[in-house]
Amino acid sequence: MMTMPMTEHGTTPSATSLSQSRVAVVGLGLMGGSLAAALRRTHRCAEVLGVARSEGSIRTALQRGWIDWGTLDLQQGVSEADIIILATPVRTIIRLIGQIGPWLKRGCLVMDMGSTKRRIMSAMEGLPAAAEPVGGHPMCGKESSGLEAAEANLYQGAVFVLTPLARTSSVALGLARHLVQAVGARPLVLEAARHDRLVAAVSHLPYCAASALVATAEGIAAEDELVWELAASGFRDTSRLAASDSDMMRDIVLTNAEAILQVLHRYRGQIDRWIAALETEDSSRLEAMMQEVSSRRRALYRSHRHWR
Amino acid sequence: MMTMPMTEHGTTPSATSLSQSRVAVVGLGLMGGSLAAALRRTHRCAEVLGVARSEGSIRTALQRGWIDWGTLDLQQGVSEADIIILATPVRTIIRLIGQIGPWLKRGCLVMDMGSTKRRIMSAMEGLPAAAEPVGGHPMCGKESSGLEAAEANLYQGAVFVLTPLARTSSVALGLARHLVQAVGARPLVLEAARHDRLVAAVSHLPYCAASALVATAEGIAAEDELVWELAASGFRDTSRLAASDSDMMRDIVLTNAEAILQVLHRYRGQIDRWIAALETEDSSRLEAMMQEVSSRRRALYRSHRHWR
Fold first, then answer.
1. Considering only B6-15, B162-171, B202-211, which range has the smallest mean pLDDT?
2. Which of A83, A88, B87, B295 could form a disulfide with A109 if both were Cys (CB 3.0 to 4.6 A apart)?
């Protein structure tokens, strides 16, 4: 059994090591299902229990050996857990945080896997003092969503952001790190507001750009349907994120609107640079823009072995 | 041997069937190298000869069995061919069309594989009356460029646009179709201006959007370098086209500026819709935008089996 350093702050997580912990995964979709699968496969925690809205999801997760047991009853699932992972869309996470407080075991680690962190961490401030809140956001995903798309390897090699509160004990943060490492991911501790600014640029802006591209092409298609015949891999890849689950994305966009607006304004400035260079037929300027961006993108792709 | 219908217009291609034709591929990069490889593998033409600027490319193409013979001498290569395929960046294609006229065999089919067609077809109007011009543009590609990236399967299943001139005989167009089918692609005859409008939307706009995304993220990275640690598959795919060869893209953008400007203005309008919806925190409008685009993108992807 691994021992963990004791916290200096008084509260002690209800199970100080991952191997002694009962982990409740609330929400058995792509992210929650994959986390349960990864935890169960490595046998690094005492028990994995699933909380879902449908019996079908629990049955499927049980059949695949991804959970030890499951329940439709949030209170039951949460009150027996040492570690709770909220794996639903962001606004549901915020709602659940408001509900679960009274049911938590003393020292229970409350984590989530929402894609924005500032609003979620404000909600976590309201948890009882005996709870240990740590926000989480794994930087990985898939085009398809739902339990059917889940897989134990999803987190392998991915960066997994952790956003503790000031009140979170070092023992609890250590336990969160162990859990992240147990599923093959790389923990990265960040302040919630900084996380939200950065993902606005590299995750939410690409989604908006992809959606605007599909909407533009759709407008052209209304005039000439043949356009889809000419769409090749470039269009497919650039537009891929537009197919993201719209419930999930609505919550993300609404809980990070300020940071997204800032990068959208900058992005529009870059589109305006393109328009200006083309309107003036400024070939040397165009050439400089293209070379700079091309070499930057190539260097990024070469140097980041962990791109997923 | 396959026989071809005779033309009604008087000129006859110098070899009326593909199997009797000597094909000269001018430019042994990704597209030219792959075309030579595909033609040679299927034994559907009499001979494949390569014209390149470097002895290294010819040596490599010979070693791989992708050409029967090669030359650095454009005049020599062109004057012995029944079919010429210009496979260089667009502005080089236009320059080559201006040079090769005096050297062409009577009835020689002159094709190209440039990504824009209007300017190239204007240049082809200047070819001698005995030449048979047919523009071409295969809707496929790869992130990497050059002969090293070439492969005989590149054209398999891809749409291959053909843009004949009014003067082009039906025999010549038939021969071009056969060549396209021989490399596994699907011919699609289109008017050059229509081609350029459509590819502006589904090929050149995605490139501009990807480049603007990399430039925006680069600006954020100047303030907080950690941004690249959080870039996952969404950023990677949406930005992929920004790594395209900038020499090739410069020629494309400069020869299709008008059509690209039109779609860039529409695209900026879509970005403005995002900004307006986020600024007013209009969640029902955001939800409608996201659902519409998501279901459109999913339907497209499902219904187009030939996406590459």
1. B6-15
2. A83
A26 pairs with which residues across the strands?
A51, A86
- How far is it, in rounded angstroms, from Cα B237 to Cα B243? 11
Question: Which DSSP letter does residue A223 get?
Answer: H
Q: Which residue has the tokens 């992809």?
A: A210
Per-residue pLDDT, averaged over A249-256, amounts to 95
> Between the CA atoms of B247, B252, B258 and B259, what dihedral angle is there, to the nearest 10 degrees?
-140
Place of tokens 């490399």: B183
A2-15: burial string, b at 16+ Cβ within 10 Å, e else:
eebeebeeebbbbb
Among B80, B126, B89, B111, CA closest to B176: B111
Nearest CA in chain B to A284: B250
pLDDT per residue over A95-122, tens digit each?
999 999 999 999 999 999 999 999 999 9
| Angstroms from A76 CA to nearest CA on chain B | 33
In the predicted model, what is the mean pLDDT of chain B? 92
Question: Is residue B46 scored above 80 in pLDDT?
Answer: yes
Which residues 125-144 of B are in CB contact (within 8 Å) with A?
139-141
Phi-psi region of B80 (alpha: psi -120 to 50; beta: other; left: phi over 0): alpha
Q: Kindly indicate the confidence band of residue B141, based on its pLDDT and cuts at 50, 70 and 90.
A: confident
- pLDDT score, position B11: 52
Calculate the dihedral angle through the C-alpha atoms of B15, B21, B27, B33, rounding to the nearest 10 degrees: 150
Mutate to test the interface with A, among B197, B238, B260 (most CBs of A within 10 A): B238
Task: Quote the CA–CA distance of A155 and A135 in Å, as a whole number.
Answer: 16
All residues of chain A having their beta carbon less than 8 Å from the beta carbon of residue B283 are 250, 254
What value of ipTM does the predicted structure carry?
0.90
Q: At A143, is the pLDDT very low, low, confident or very high (cuts 50, 70, 90)? A: confident
**Nearest residue in chain B measured CA to CA from A262:** B275
pLDDT above 70 as % of chain A: 93
Nearest to B135 by CA among B153, B118, B157: B118
State how far the Cα of B29 lies from the Cα of A233, in Å rounded to an integer: 19
| B193–A contact, CB cutoff 8 A | no
Q: Residue A187 has what pLDDT?
A: 98
Cross-chain residue pair A230–B198, CB shorter than 8 Å: yes
Which residues of chain A make contact with B236, given a CB cutoff of 8 A?
A: 301, 307-308
